[in-house]
Amino acid sequence: MRVWIDQDLCTGDGICIDHCSDVFVQLEDGIAYVAEAGQPLNDPGGSGSLAWVAPRNVADVIHSAETCPGECIFIELDDPPVEPVDELA
Ligand code: SF4
User: Fold this and answer.
1) Mean per-residue pLDDT for 49-74?
2) Could you say which DSSP state residue 59 is in?
3) Which fold has domain 2-76?
4) Hey, whose CA ends up nearest to atom 6 of ligand 1?
5) Which residues, 6 or more positions from 74, have their beta carbon under 8 angstroms from its beta carbon?
6) In the list 15, 70, 73, 83, which could disulfide-bond 65, CB 3.0-4.6 Å?
7) What order of strands is seen across the sheet that includes strand 2-5?
8) 25, 32 Cβ separation under 8 angstroms
9) Is residue 11 lining ligand 1, measured as CB closer than 6 Å?
10) Confidence of residue 88 (pLDDT cuts 50, 70, 90)
11) Which residues pair with 74 in a beta bridge?
């Protein structure tokens, strides 16, 4: 699962950081950004602003998206693993 924030809609209230400070950070501009391995991804609108979510943070990130007053946390579900096709069956 990956997550990104539309900074144009963020109110800067910090609710997402309260829920999951591993994934969400607030920078000097007062706006929330996603982070990966502790590194903020501050490339709004760019593909570099999409952060991978560790399994231990999935529930908190979903809760953050559900409660975000700006409705600006977006979750991208990764494709499920493809089952190998047994061509001899
Ligand atoms: S909860 Fe939403 S609106 Fe609030 S700081 Fe986080 S991303 Fe911004």
Assistant:
1) 96
2) H
3) Alpha-Beta Plaits (3.30.70)
4) 16
5) 3, 4, 5, 6, 65
6) 73
7) 51-52, 2-5, 73-76
8) yes
9) yes
10) low
11) 4
> pLDDT digits over 9-47, tens only?
999 999 999 999 999 999 999 999 999 988 999 876 666
Instruction: Give the CA distances from residue 14 to residues 38, 61, 65, 86, 89, in Å, rounded to whole numbers and listed in that order.
Output: 17, 13, 12, 49, 54
| pLDDT (0 to 100) of residue 49 | 87
32 lines ligand 1 (CB under 6 A): yes
Six token digits for residue 24: 């969400």
* pLDDT for the residue numbered 27: 94
Cα(first)–Cα(last) distance of the chain, in Å? 33
Query: Nearest residue CA, atom 2 of ligand 1?
Result: 68
Q: Which two tokens stand for residue 85?
A: 């096709």
Backbone angles phi, psi at 12, to 5 degrees: 75, 20
